[in-house]
Amino acid sequence: MKKLGIVGGVAWPSTIDYYRAICRLSVAHHKGKSIRGPAPVPEMTIESLNINKSFSLRGSVANDDASWEAYDGYFRDALLRLERSGAEVAIIASSTPHNRFQSITRGIRIPVISIFDAVADNCAQLGITEMLILGTAPTMDMAVFSEVLARRGICGFSPARPEERAEIAALIAELYADRGEGAAQRILGVIEISFPKKGKMRAACLACTELPLAFPEMEQNTSAQIDEVLLINTTMIHAKAAFSAALQ
Amino acid sequence: MKKLGIVGGVAWPSTIDYYRAICRLSVAHHKGKSIRGPAPVPEMTIESLNINKSFSLRGSVANDDASWEAYDGYFRDALLRLERSGAEVAIIASSTPHNRFQSITRGIRIPVISIFDAVADNCAQLGITEMLILGTAPTMDMAVFSEVLARRGICGFSPARPEERAEIAALIAELYADRGEGAAQRILGVIEISFPKKGKMRAACLACTELPLAFPEMEQNTSAQIDEVLLINTTMIHAKAAFSAALQ
User: Judging by DSSP bridges, how do beta strands B229-233 and B202-206 pair with one another?
Assistant: First the structure.
């Protein structure tokens, strides 16, 4: 198996989800094969960043390059360290930095699997044509993810009202802090309000890797249907893409 | 905070325990302080090894250096990568390699905190004078840990009968494989049989970082008293020592 590189820590609870998912996928992959000793797991290097620093380095949602320079460099340096440690393929275990993906991965020689690409491919396979995007302010306000989705014929949109946007930001902070009681119902409430048309299947993308923590029942699944809403677990889609790349 | 380096993956469930513990200690440390944004967490690099490979490279319990050369090199190379990635202090998140600690850390310039030293210091503070050691075959059969304990006036001993030693090995394998039902009771059973004298407080060291997984109630604690047995959680003692070093 190829060595995987993970830029993590933003935030750490979802880094655990990624790492556990990749390890479990490997244990499942080797099950039943005649192997001496414990099930093999790909070698990995995890560069766990300080989320307080990455948060403070965020640039403007207008997405002008100058304002994001220090942020991009913080992640690019982590990818360079992964490269030097022998990682053959890498992921950034967080949605937010993917809004700066092109700049962050500039000059990186190993392939870096984008969460936006992996999720858009998965949603296209599911036949989704319209999808609510729930994530941090950069993910909801910058057009990067919706452009990736549009290339697969999917119309991505964010909550229209500031109340729901603020609620999602609050939920992400609470889930990071190991709180988030009632988070699942609150997310479903935001989805209910944010869809203009009722009465048909709604797809909502948990496009911040903390949000799936609110739904422990979908921990191992790339998507789950709850109350007529198809929830997309971006963490698990991205982790599966990483493990597949390790096998190739 | 200093950057931490962790050699992990042996096995991955306890690497998660270490990483989660260090992150939670950092969140708790910063609680109530006026900080803008999410709670800071030390930067970390985790070199997660393939446990199947480390298992197959194990040398003889007679501890002759030649038989362990490849094993030692596998861990030493991981420490060198941590050093190159900027880690200022490192740990190996597993007991077994500590039986080869001197050889593994040869030539490493950053401090590497030994789990055996951290646990022995902690047990001496608790006033323990006699302690059952439960771990992998190398940890139970090689004299390294008991010598470290003896320097603090603690007499460490392993289960005398092959039945209990085999039971511990089976439990470690099951806990790694995410099974381990009834593991807590089975560990307590081994402890009951392995203590020659009854009727006084018994201390037992869970000296393989998988064993504390059997006692979810002690996840956050360095020790716990269960059924007149004082259980020592080596994972948590080692993780706390690492976080303290990051703060210094």
Answer: parallel
